[in-house]
Structures are given as C-alpha cells and as structure tokens.
Amino acid sequence: MIRLFVALELPDTVIDGLGALCAGVPGARWIEPENMHMTLRFLGEIDEARYEDVVETLDGVRAPVFELTLESIDTFSQGQVPHRLWVGVRRSEELMQLQAKIERAIVRAGFEPERRRYTPHVSLARLRDAPLDRLGDFMRRHEPFRMPSFAVEHFAFFSSHLSKGNADYQVEERFALDGAGYAEYAAMGADDD
Q: Which class for 62: exposed (0-12), middle (13-18), buried (19 or more C-beta within 10 A)?
C-alpha cells in the first residue's frame, strides 16, 4: 500500500519566498520547503493495481498551461481554534477546471467523490496551541501578501511517506498540461530531479 495525492509542484522561487515566511509563531510546526505543494486531490493508501489505474486515468486529463498567483494568508480552524496556516490563491478558473477534471478522473478510476469543497492553498504550518495574538500579528505583518505569478505547466502524482511526526513527499509521476501526454513530457527531460 502506498499513500498518494495529486498536486501542483511549486517553482523554486515560490518555495524560497514561502520558506522566508516560516518563522515567528510559537506552536507552529512549519512545513519543510521541499514539501510545499498545492494539493489537487488526496487519495489515501492504495495498492499497486489501483495505482496503475489512476496513472492511466490521469494521463488522459487535458488542460491548458495557465498562470497562477499566490496571495493572502489565512487559517483553517476547528471551531475557534486555528489548526493550519496557509497561503491562498488568486481566483483562477483554469485551476478550478483542472482540479475538476482531476476529480472526475479519480472517480472514473473507482474512487468515491470528494465531499469537501476544494479550497486551493499551500500549507505553511500546522498549528498547535499557537497564541492567537502572535498568529494575528504574523498575519497582519504579511498582509497584503502576494507573490509573482508563475506558469503551471504540469501536475504531479505524489507519494507520502510518514515517519516520526513528519511526512516526506516524493513525485511518482508528472503529467504535462496543454495536451501533451506524460511520455512526451518525460522525453523533454521534465522528470529529471
């Protein structure tokens, strides 16, 4: 069994900019920069046979290359208690259409539809007992937040490997946008790490 999700990789310049934000909130467990990504669909643990089905289905997703802009800082909360600090995305119809196509592909591969509404974001930290005043100071200090736009040219299939309190994410497959199949994309050298 392997734990998998579909996500956008972020350019190094974006990761560097987000990594520079990661300090100043007690109780924050900051995401390691090399693990920053934008989840499009979480699948959970699946076996090898289902893995191949998902790869085949995702390889059929077609969408154009588009520009994406990260802006705003916010939290997810359970009740009144924030548990995750994240950076949001400027409204992007292209992103929402890509996510919807991926969702449909995952359902075609035999998975249950996602019940939660998709909220595009990049997690910065998991929060545990973070003082609300310090969290508020952090958010005010960094607003208005906006990064330069970047081109989204592919999406990726990631595996998640859990160890003592941490996760390590590894790209398993990449899928080109603008109609090129993964094999053509890989032939261009895009799968070199």
A: middle
Strands 166-176 and 154-163: what pairing? Answer: antiparallel
pLDDT at 165 (0 to 100): 65
Q: Which domain holds residue 167?
A: 2-187
Active-site residue, 142 included: no
Q: Is 83 a catalytic residue?
A: no
- Taking all residues of the chain, what is their mean pLDDT, rounded to a whole number? 89
Domain count for the chain: 1
pLDDT digits (tens, 9 = 90+) for 23-37: 999 999 999 999 999
Q: Within a domain: residue 119? A: yes
Distance CA 167, CA 64 (A): 31
CATH code for the domain of 19: 3.90.1140.10
Does some domain include residue 192? no
Active-site residue, from 121, 142, 154, 161: 121
Residue count of the chain? 193
Whether residue 108 has pLDDT greater than 60: yes
Residue 33, judged by CB atoms within 10 A of its CB (0-12, 13-18, 19+), counts as: middle
Residue of 37, 83, 142, 154 with catalytic role: 37
Q: Closest by alpha carbon to 7, among 152, 145, 151, 140?
A: 152
